[in-house]
């Protein structure tokens, strides 16, 4: 019996930051509640943090809009960051002047950032406690097979010391 949860997402493509640097901030907000994630993104001292804050706000607004369009009851306080990804975008190839008329090539990395939020599942239909039988009988324990008896290890005889070769002069 699977409980269906809706997932709402927002994307920011072609951001001028390397995906590795964006993942540092995204790892801070993964799995947190939306309000806590917004506060974390607002006070993080990374250049990409305001973009992630704006993206997370957009994902929450998307959730409100889609839920209103479909007539679904959505509790914004129970939303959490389900996934936050930073994938590679295209790389911009650039050239840097080098000594003696040469040039060094380098790449400017771009990132596609995706944030998705979902509503925390309720415990409706989920079994949290197993009920014991009414007659108080304990379930029978499984017996171990008799074939798995301890086998005595055979001791190896100690190796005899090697004889020294005698040298005749």
Strand pairing plus helix content: what structural class?
A: alpha+beta
Order of helix and strand elements from N to C terminus:
EHHHEEEE
Strand content: 15-25%
What percent of the residues sit in helical stretches (DSSP H or I)?
Answer: 10-25%
Might you state the CATH topology name of one domain? Answer: Ribosomal Protein L22, Chain A
Classified by CATH, the class of one domain is Alpha Beta
**Largest sheet data:** 3 strands, antiparallel
Which architecture of one domain per CATH?
A: Alpha-Beta Complex
Determine the number of helices (DSSP H or I, runs of at least 4 residues): 3
Total strands: the figure is 5
Strand order in the largest sheet: 1-5-2
Shape: flat
- Give the N-terminus to C-terminus distance in angstroms: 91 Å
CATH homology superfamily name of one domain: Ribosomal protein L22/L17
Please state the average pLDDT score: 83
Radius of gyration: 32 Å
Regions with pLDDT < 50 over 5+ consecutive residues?
A: 123-128, 147-153
Write the layout of secondary structure elements.
Blueprint lengths: L6 E9 L3 H11 L4 H9 L6 H22 L8 E10 L3 E6 L5 E6 L2 E9 L50
Antiparallel strand pairs: 1-5, 2-5, 3-4
Helix pairs in contact: 2-3
């Amino acid at each position: 019996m699977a409980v269906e949860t809706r997932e709402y997402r927002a994307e920011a493509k072609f951001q001028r930051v390397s995906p590795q640097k964006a993942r540092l901030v995204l790892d801070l907000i993964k799995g947190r509640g939306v309000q806590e994630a917004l506060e974390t993104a607002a006070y993080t001292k990374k250049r990409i943090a305001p973009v992630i804050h704006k993206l997370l706000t957009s994902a929450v607004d998307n959730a409100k809009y889609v839920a209103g369009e479909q007539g679904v009851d959505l509790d914004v306080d129970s939303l959490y960051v389900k996934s936050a990804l930073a994938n590679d975008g295209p790389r911009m190839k650039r050239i840097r002047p080098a000594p003696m008329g040469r040039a060094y090539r380098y790449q400017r990395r771009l990132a596609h950032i995706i944030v998705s939020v979902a509503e925390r599942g309720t415990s409706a239909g989920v079994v949290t406690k197993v009920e014991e039988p009414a007659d108080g009988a304990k379930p029978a324990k499984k017996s171990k097979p008799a074939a798995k008896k301890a086998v005595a290890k055979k001791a190896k005889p100690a190796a005899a010391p090697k004889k020294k070769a005698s040298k005749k002069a």
